[in-house]
Amino acid sequence: EAGVAQSPRYKIIEKRQSVAFWCNPISGHATLYWYQQILGQGPKLLIQFQNNGVVDDSQLPKDRFSAERLKGVDSTLKIQPAKLEDSAVYLCASSARGTSGFDTQYFGPGTRLTVL
Amino acid sequence: KNQVEQSPQSLIILEGKNCTLQCNYTVSPFSNLRWYKQDTGRGPVSLTIMTFSENTKSNGRYTATLDADTKQSSLHITASQLSDSASYICVVSAGSGGYNKLIFGAGTRLAVHP
Predict the structure, then answer these.
(1) What is the pLDDT of residues A58-88, one digit of tens each?
(2) E-assigned strands of chain A?
(3) Which of A91, A104, A108 sits opposite B49 (nearest CB)?
(4) Do residues A48 and A33 make contact, with C-beta atoms less than 8 angstroms apart?
(5) Cβ of B49 and A102 within 8 Å?
């Protein structure tokens, strides 16, 4: 079974530029998450999709961040314009409720963003 | 406020030794508690998931315990190996069915030295 795919793996941009990240979840997983992980901290949920609908985007800085999952499969996360404090690893995860009743999350390798 | 606190922040042990990582949480309503392992440059990988009725759960050399009364959990690693060097993240799921929110701790960074 293929895992969660993310691209690019690394991105370096200057502040005020725009950047986009792509995520392909595990086939059949209805729930998709985007997390921001700053060095030395745990992941922080930015947005959660159930199919192509938004379940939780309460911590998404909507003035500069946007995300979409148009067909309920792939997703993109965009930052426009980027700030220095956006430097972080952006993790995508997907989940499906298993036989145990838990929705185990499977994470992608992440995209490391550096804003100069 | 829902919070998950982990200790220690970092830990260095010698290969073959045991260690225990701690997690304290104030999350309501509690649904389940998870431990993840995150290797450098990789996404977190689930080690264990426990509900309030489970006191202990093992996954190979990893054993997690949960005390729902004191709101504490621990992850015990037995006979450590170099490959255990990673961050270990405690995550508590808050909710009562429907939409559950995951609250992440900051993690404990473990280094296993030969």
Answers:
(1) 999 999 999 999 788 999 999 999 999 999 9
(2) 5-7, 10-13, 19-24, 31-37, 44-50, 53-56, 65-68, 75-79, 88-97, 103-107, 111-115
(3) A104
(4) yes
(5) yes
